[in-house]
Amino acid sequence: MESRNLLGDDPVNAATDDLDRKRFGDHVVQVINRVRVQSESSVIALVGAWGSGKSSLLEMIKDSIDDAEFNTDPNAREWRVAEFNPWVHSDPVAMYVGFYSELRACLPGKKRWSEARENLGKWVQTAAPLGKLGGVARIDASTMLEKLAEKISGDTSAAAKKELAEKSLKDCDISILVVMDDVDRLTPDELLEVFKMIRLVGRLPNVYYLLAYDEKSLTDVLCRTDLAYESPSRARDYLEKMIQIRLDLPQLTEGQSERLVNRSLGAVLENNEITLSESSASAVAHIWRETLSHRIATPRSVRSFFAQVDSSYGTVAQEVNFEDFLALTFLRTHEPRVYKEIQKRGGELTMSSIVPTIKRNESLQDKLDRWEANLRDWEVESQHIRGTLQLLSRLFLPIRSAVERSEYGADWLQGIAQRKGVGHADYFARYFFFGVPSDDISDFLVERSLALLSEGSADTAEVHSLRDSLKRFPDRTVRKIENFGNLNEETVRNLLDLMAGVYLEIPDNVGFLGALSRVSFEGLAETLYSNALGSAMAVYLDNAMKTDGGYCLAVRGLRRARHRAVRSDKQVDKEKYSKILLDLIKRKFDEVKSCDIHYVTQDVFSTVYPWVEIEVNTARAFMREQAENNAWPLLHIMEKLVTRGRSSRYPGDILSSLDEGVVESLLGLDYVFEKLRDEIDSASTDFVMEGLPDTPENRRRFALAALKFTRIKKQTGTG
């Protein structure tokens, strides 16, 4: 099946019929022929839901109605088909003109049929409420009356004209089948006019009618007329009087439905070059059987649904999960209010933020009740609430917890992220944006960049884009990298290099919304170093020592690994990471000990903290030696120990604190008080320390003032 077959709505002919409708069409033709034997004129109804294939079936009936196999009587009249669509006409006058034109066109064009055509036109003009009807007989009404007077010297009443028309048609050796499709599209007034036309004008000999409609829709239209007075039973009674033979289009069998779905889905997969894994194919099958099949049951609705998927999936191909996209497409087309409302609840559904409107300690039953109430408020019909909830539970963990009465915590989110599911915050927006938002990075680009890094091709447009994304959106980009699973040694080495070049460019704070953070880098570094085997660790660390960014990232990643080992009481791992960290930190401080301390960046200097944690005595000895030798003046060391931060009250980086515990561990407070006695004594405390901008002068002022307050507390025993 080609995509145009999905997107188009043209009737299916016998050559492309894969639903066995030709067999039913042959049955209808047999019925029509039997009716002709028993009645001069009759109205037959072809009843089926919208989209069930009535128009396609009518095409097959028209194509085969002249087949000899159904005309067992060699003397049987020839069939002529008149297609009449009353809903395309703007008013009753135009409708009668169209009706007559179709009947007239069915009569042979030979001269001997001219009288039959004229008699038919006279009768239609007389019976129809048309006034002047030049279009009927292709002459003005007054001219027609003159000709009528010439030809008929007797009774010129309506009854006489009808008799002439009937006689002419009885003498014909043809039968006319008037096919009317989509009768249920008419307005109430139009529908009554059509039925009136059939009953009073159109019930002529050898004229038969085949009306196609959806019964519920037609009944609803009749209920809006004065004839039925909003009574479905009166509407049905009226239809029974109008319709002599009723033929109901059979619903799709299970096998037919499967063939149609498989064919339509296959077209989507082929058009978008999608290969479904066994688990994905199973997920699609479950989604279809549990929910979609109950709502998408006609040939047209199946094709229309998959056309929606086909037309929009290409914009996000390889960036979202196909089965989730399928489910979201269903909600978008069949439950648009639900689709709109869940966009507002992304934080709750992806478990990425706390929703203040939800009561604390909400039970699973309360959550289920709340979502059922939501669906009712969002105009989901009661019989569809359960299926819609089931579908949503496949997409979002909080709803799954409520439906299955089982807690699914944040640890389940990793699996959703790995399959690019809508239930994860990193992918949620893509399903509604129909693409990758500007604050996101394409998964395809991440995958391609990692492949290039594995080849040692770091200087490419893709890798540069990955680097930019790591800087702008570190948290999200790192998670994308983590989702790709195991990476080979070459990829890890080049990836760590790439991260090293970005790491120190990321502000060393979490930002007010947690968007800017080095923490995600450190977590990924922890994973990469923890998974390093054999000599790979030494290679990675040697590489890290080449830049400040690489060194700081390695220290903080390994420090996290050591902390994890301590928490897990894994003594072997603790000792392993302690040794690696000490070797790394001592190498770095040995490199910089002869440098002016102002050239030692704050990030590098701060790596003294894990040194203190692991081996405080050697760290203190190193720092005191630097101070004693005046390689690093003590006051400048204190300047480095002042921490920075941010506040909504002040712009930029501001000075935050001087931790006396850190000073005690690294140098000893008494040692500092003694060495900096004069500076501390003369230090001013008559300035506002809160919100000071981060400058070298302010750091020294801040450090001395803080030391002075600390000394006073120690001397007075306060605080």
Describe this structure in words.
By secondary structure, the protein is of the alpha/beta class. It folds into 5 domains: 20-89 and 175-250, Rossmann fold; 108-171; 254-433, no CATH class; 441-615; 633-719, no CATH class. The strands form 2 sheets. It has a 5-stranded parallel β-sheet, with helices on both faces. Strand 6 and strand 7 (650-657) form a beta hairpin. Helix 13 (278-295) runs antiparallel to helix 19. It is elongated, with a radius of gyration of 42 Å.
Low-confidence stretches: 130-155, 510-515
**If you compute it from the alpha carbons, what radius of gyration comes out, rounded to the nearest whole angstrom?**
42 Å
Strand content: 5-15%
Helical percentage:
55-70%
Strand order of the largest sheet: 2-3-4-1-5
Q: What's the story with the biggest beta sheet?
A: 5 strands, parallel
- Counting helices, strands and paired strands, the structural category is alpha/beta
**Overall 3D geometry?**
elongated
The number of distinct β-strands equals 7
- Helical stretch tally: 38
The termini sit apart by: 81 Å
Average pLDDT for all residues: 84
Count of the separate structural domains? 5
